Amino acid sequence: MEGKLYAGEDYKKEFDPQDYLKTYYAFDSGTVAENEILKFNLKNLFQTFSSGGVGGDILIDIGSGPTIYQLLSACEAFREIIVSDYTEQNLWELEKWLKKEPGAYDWSPAVQYVCELEGDRSRCQEKESRLRRTVTQLLKCDVTQPHPLAPAQVPPADCVLTLLALESACPDADAYRAAIRGLVSLLKPGGHLVTMAALRSKHYMVGAKKFFGLPLEKETVEKAVQEAGCQVLRCEYCPISYSQVHSTNEGICFVVARKGPRA
Asked: Within 10 Å of residue 211's Cβ, how many Cβ atoms?
């Protein structure tokens, strides 16, 4: 795959949320690897926010992108969800779904899958309504800054969630570790950090455009979380990678950690 590699500020002009959604979240038989990774995430999120006991008042989703799948289980465990992203176009895409506007992405297959995990496939509409009520703010974020949500002021969170965001935003391992520290700073003592990373990534495709991916190892993710003052409670590794035509990663990992009293 030759051509320009987009990164950093390029996201504001070059990232197309509709192309991204069609590539990685179609949830159809044509994208088997993408479906399996989405199911892996949905199962782990369900476990984390139900039997995993992670819940509370406020969850902050950092680097939400144009997606809501990561919040389908969380909306049952938190009173309020704050979503955030680096780009205006992703926030617009989220707002379209939240307001049920024409052209909003159809998340019903993912919603149904989560409702089946919860044991009641008949409550899909109720689930969507609950999520729309629970999301209270859409904010800009930049994980390369010490205060990722600045200038917005938010109360300390019970949980910070970030999936498939940091490895796209951080140019190197030092920036990744600093970003994890910034996210942990948003948590209450005893609060939870929940993250998922694509491992050994170099780039991923959105439409015909190639975007940067930071090559992370599972051990790098765990160590960064621990160095930020968190205890790793779970680290689930999945050997499935995205389709080669879409991404260069080798496996993924899903981490749940708890912030210590002095972090």
From this structure: 20
